[in-house]
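Components:
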Amino acid sequence: MPFPTKARTLLAAVAMALATASGALADKIELLDAAPEDALVVNIDKMKYETPEITIKAGDAVTWTNQEVMPHNVHFLAGVVADEAVKGTMLKKDESWSARFNEPGTYDYHCTPHPFMRGKVVVE
Amino acid sequence: MTEGQRAAAEAAAQLAAGEADEPVILNAPEPDTRRVYIQDPAHFAAVTQQFVIDGDTGRVIGMTDGGFLPHPVAAEDGSFFAQASTVFERIARGKRTDYVEVFDPVTFLPIADIELPDAPRFLVGTYQWMNALTPDNKNLLFYQFSPAPAVGVVDLENQQFDRMLDVPDCYHIFPASPTVFYMNCRDGSLARVDFADGETDVTNTEVFHAENELLINHPAFSLRAGRLVWPTYTGKIFQADLTEDAASFREPFEALTEQERADGWRPGGWQQTAYHRPSDRIFLLVDQRDEWRHKTASRFVVVIDAATGERIAKLEMGHEIDSINVSQDAEPLLYGLSAGDKTLYIYDAESGEELRSVDQLGHGPQIITTHDMDA
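Structure:
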């Protein structure tokens, strides 16, 4: 049985999010198909975003990396980073999802199947 | 004589007497404490049914249709029953509509149909207290799971959706006054939510159970008494008395003896817990089972004095029972519902004697609702 590679999973994540974001996406957030070396990392472990609030500068990238076998994702509600919701694909253990934030603001997110997992990105 | 035989004899007599047949739409009898509603989630089918039954005679006296995993409620005073439901424009796909329907309890005609904006219902196997009416019957409260925990307020009096209340990571809804309800939270506490005057004020009780004490999805709750009865997977019973002001926890006790637990006895089923308010008794579905077969049917019900934790009876049901409830009159009926048999077995709650049964109740009936009409 074939398993998707990490790269394919990331591409699928980007394609899915772009498809739901209908153009407005590129302004506030840019989804990346690979984790930039200078990205700030938010690890996910023990049913938590380890850094639930992260402050960055406009233009910085953030990479979320799941450290546990329980799948997690990053889900921005409609109107937060785009007109439509941006619902990242589920990350298995050691998989990552990255986005660059272009506009100052506070962007709340949660994990789709675990709504009690919440985080925010503050862009200065 | 069976119900069918009685009707046949009656029709034969009318025919012999030369009485013409005048077909009409019937009304159901007035609601009473022995009316019982059987919701059939039909194993996640896109449409569902609810059977309305006279527990005294074991007759189906009416039915209501529902959509996907609807949630039934019944005003304790018998003035109406209602449901929160979900339909789609192409059977199980297309535009989704969530709505609340209120039914006249005699004609069964819908007297309100209130749309819920943005499809906020939590689509889940039906848990009896995931939705609730406020004790004044003016609002229906329903739960939203995703994208964030929230409780929707549906104004039944004015037949309109009111608003969503942001709540913590908590589940189930137990109203204690027209504007206060409680929820069970991930951290092991109860949340008290006051939504009076357009505000949402949330406070938490102390943590009342340990992380490894797993509370089941089917607690019993009496809107009239404010009593919450919440078993764990092992049959440890937590109780709280909920008032507008506060939740008071009672000393927990074990529903099963040490010997029974050593012999593999555990609660199991769907709606596993019932509470009889007038006698302050708890009914719990139990059987011998593996720890992780907590959703299989049980063949026994233990009856417990809620005040002392003392065992009153252990009733053998004679069938594979998934859900139980009781009528709230002085000499209650015990309802035992088998999703596998699609049959409601009706027992004398005191002796455990099976009195009658009603079969052919849909595809997988699971939820039993009654009216607690003797205030």
